[in-house]
Amino acid sequence: MSLHDDEVVSTPELVQRLVADQFPRWAHLAVTPGPEGGTDHTLFRLGDDLLVRMPKIGWAQEQASSDARWLPHLAPHLPLRLPAPEAVGEPGAGFPFRWSVTPWLDGASPAVGELGTGAARQLGEFVAALRTVSTAGGPLKAGTSRGVPLARLDDDVRAAIAECGDRIDGRAAIKMWDRSLDARPAADGHWIHGDLLPGNLLADGGRMTAVIDWGGVGVGDAAADLIPAWTQFTGAGRAAFRAAATDGLDDPDDAWERGRGWVLVQAVIALPYYWDRWPEFALACRDRVTAVLAG
């Protein structure tokens, strides 16, 4: 089963042709399958120092342009590397979306619980630094995207919890969701990454090196970037992340409760969708529900 019913498939041959046609300076570089992509991009290595990101589906088609607009703006203010595009490609050779060429960033996505308190503090400081960047002219989060008021997702989350059936403790999930909704809403919007799941973090030697996949970037509720507390860290690591990531927030305790809600939003909506399409991802979503319900 494909990941999405309307998924657009990319191949090394397609990428080689697009690169040769649009960026002939890189035409001599080999194209090889890259690391496993996420839900919305297929990745290819281009030589040793570059990465090509090919959208799989329509909802990701604007990310190349967004990355090119906003990552160079954010990068100078942040303590970890960002994959600001070297070039943005146009549709062609039968491929319908814009695509991007970014630097190859060293590091690997860490397993849950793999990183210690030092890396947890690093990531928390990154989240706090992102909030200090001026939001003037930034894209406001809208609709039901991550970073809007949680109440907008109430119907979707309750329906998803019901659809999860006995895969999760639905009663406990509803109770936790209600607790998140009861938290004081964010008073101000800040820059957020919007999708700080383990696959979008890079580390090397126990140290954070980069934050990738900025498809959820925008101005919204800072609590949406607290999800690594439950998706990446446990115990002392979680405490270190919380201390650093909430530093300077006017409402740290309320943001923490909203952060739990954002974990539920991602996990319970994704779990039934990917149960058969991407079982490993679905099981990871189930583990995230368990983690947030446990505390």
Tags for this entry?
Phosphorylase Kinase, domain 1; Aminoglycoside_PTrfase; 9 helices; Aminoglycoside 3'-phosphotransferase, Chain: A, domain 2; 2 domains; alpha+beta; two-stranded antiparallel ribbon; 295 residues; single chain; 13% strand; 5-stranded antiparallel sheet
Describe the SSE topology.
Elements: H1 12-22, E1 31-33, E2 41-46, E3 50-55, H2 63-74, E4 87-89, E5 99-103, H3 117-131, H4 154-164, H5 170-182, E6 190-192, E7 201-204, E8 207-211, E9 218-220, H6 228-231, H7 235-245, H8 252-274, H9 279-294
Antiparallel strand pairs: 1-2, 2-3, 3-5, 4-5, 6-9, 7-8
Helix pairs in contact: 3-7, 4-5, 4-8, 5-8, 8-9
Organism: Promicromonospora aerolata
Protein name: Aminoglycoside phosphotransferase family protein
InterPro entries: AGP_Transferase, Aminoglycoside_PTrfase, Kinase-like_dom_sf
Overview of this protein structure:
The radius of gyration is 19 Å and the shape is globular. A hairpin with a 3-residue loop joins strand 2 (41-46) and strand 3. It is of the alpha+beta class. Helix 3 (117-131) packs parallel to helix 7, helix 5 runs antiparallel to helix 8 and helix 8 (252-274) runs antiparallel to helix 9 (279-294). The protein folds into two domains: 12-103, Phosphorylase Kinase, domain 1 (2-Layer Sandwich), CATH 3.30.200.20; 117-294, Aminoglycoside 3'-phosphotransferase, Chain: A, domain 2, CATH 3.90.1200.10. Strands 1-2-3-5-4 form a five-stranded antiparallel beta sheet, with helices on both faces. It has a two-stranded antiparallel sheet with strand order 6-9. It has a two-stranded antiparallel sheet with strand order 7-8. Helix content is 39%, strand content 13%. The chain has helices at 12-22, 63-74, 117-131, 154-164, 170-182, 228-231, 235-245, 252-274, 279-294, and strands spanning 31-33, 41-46, 50-55, 87-89, 99-103, 190-192, 201-204, 207-211, 218-220. The protein is built from nine helices and nine strands.
